UniProtKB/TrEMBL annotation:
Keywords, comma-separated and alphabetical: Methyltransferase, S-adenosyl-L-methionine, Signal, Transferase
Protein name: Tetrapyrrole methylase
Tetrapyrrole methylase domain boundaries: 30-243
Pfam families associated with the record: TP_methylase (PF00590)
Coiled-coil segments: none
Keyword Mitochondrion attributed: no
UniProt-listed GO biological process terms: methylation
CDD domains linked: TP_methylase
Keyword Cytoplasm annotated: no
GO molecular function: methyltransferase activity
Lineage: Bacteria, Pseudomonadati, Campylobacterota, Epsilonproteobacteria, Campylobacterales
Span of the signal peptide: 1-26
Amino acid sequence: MRINKMLKNIKKIIVGSIIASSSLFANGQLSIVSAGVGDLDNMTIKAYNAIKEADIFFTMDGKAGEYSSLIGNKPVYKAGHGIFANMDNTKMKKEELEQLKTETKKIVLEGHKAGKKIVLIENGDPTIYGPQISFLKEFKELNPKIIPGMSSFNAANAALQTAIIGGIKDASGVTLTIGSDKNKLISTLADSKSTLVFFMDREFDKFIDHLNTLYSKDTGIAIVINAGSKDKEKVIIATLGTIKEKVTEKLPFNHLVYVGDFLK
């Protein structure tokens, strides 16, 4: 009698565990998936599979674009540009921005509850100045994950065809930061003699003038444009004293600037 009661209790526990487990896996998954940078063949297999298997998609402009062959007829929604980090630069009106936030939350939460795989397609490394990283915080209760991919930094390093840390002078490492004459951190970093990699410099001449106040004019500088693109990638190598002569037109947004003795 006692054994039968014990067996019944064990059975209840097992059934309860199965139900709990089923309920857990019934929920969906929100993922920020990096499709890499440059050409599509820079995409990782893991990212490719995640996109192929997903049910619902978000892209910055709400279009399948170059990923249409992977997405097919599945729904694609607009993610905007950092809408949950208050950094939207699409010149949307406040009402439109709030509406986009509300719609995005509704789609993600309902999709997750229905057990759907939701993928936000990003480029490069979402954790390095990525506009969509705020989705992690906004939907943290859903335990979202990042699927990494090749970043512009990885691709640009390869384009330079050299070790970006080499020799005693560069032993202090590599620092990634924003390229701006208003970035007060640069003067401190310049003293460290580490290799500096600058993202998003938008006033090139002014920025180079600022660097020339911190470094000697024979300091090496490299610019990698459209890293990872077979047809568009371009590398310019010079010194701080000669770089303006080599850059004769406005640089595209997709470029990185390297400064350091590793280029000598």
